[in-house]
Structures
1.
Amino acid sequence: MTSEKPDETQAAKFPHLRDTVRTIANTAPTVDYISVLESEPHAAAPGLTIKYVPDKLILTSQSFDDYTAAFRSVAFDSLEDFAITVLSDINNEVVPRWCQIVVWRHREGSANRCVVVEDRQPNWDNPALLSRIAPV
């Protein structure tokens, strides 16, 4: 993982997406655990998986549904552009200890594509927990 942070100009292109991200307090902030939210591809929209280790906040399931509905109407330049936008939104609104964004598209007659981006808070590490995540 690089130490570079997601480009904030990505989020500035689609501010209505970030507006749909709502959080609630994490009731177990001293415990490291992985939360996973997944949306299957829909029409032109790619599939999205968000895996994160919450800190003080968690993303609500309804918020995730609203977020995925909102991005279905957005034309991203690339899967990479989309993945970085999601990472930036989650990092800024949820502020997880660790986050992995997986974006994928399967099209008949063409190559399957998958983009994975990750970030973590400085000085946070839990190798035992992260080793449980299946490689992409």
2.
Amino acid sequence: MNSSIVALGIAGSIALIGGVFAPVVSLPSSMGGGTTDYSRNGEGNGIYLLILGICSLLLVLLRVYRGLWFTALGALGTLGHNLFVHFGNRADIKAQLGGGEFAEAFIASIQFQWGLLILFSGIVMLIACAFLASIGKNSDGRGSHG
């Protein structure tokens, strides 16, 4: 069971780290077009997700699974906050454009991409790893070792 927990934790950490560089939002051509990711060349909240992913990987390799609760839930909170702000920005953009069909079409052209699925999958795997390790926890609190 220990090797499967480690594999799950490593996969979750890699997904979280890789998801930072995957496309998460596509923009209309009037906003520069193309896709954007969370890294944004070191700007934005992607750096927090990257740090949490690296910390998660270290915690898994050190088999300190209890710490995964903090990194996974921290990543979930960061991602949730970003999505909340995104939807708030959509309403502001719509109001600035004066509403109407053009504003609706413009907002509809901003779409989520597959990178969000990678990020959420990584978070789910890390939470599952922490949960499974807590079920087989030894008295030292580090998780199962056998």
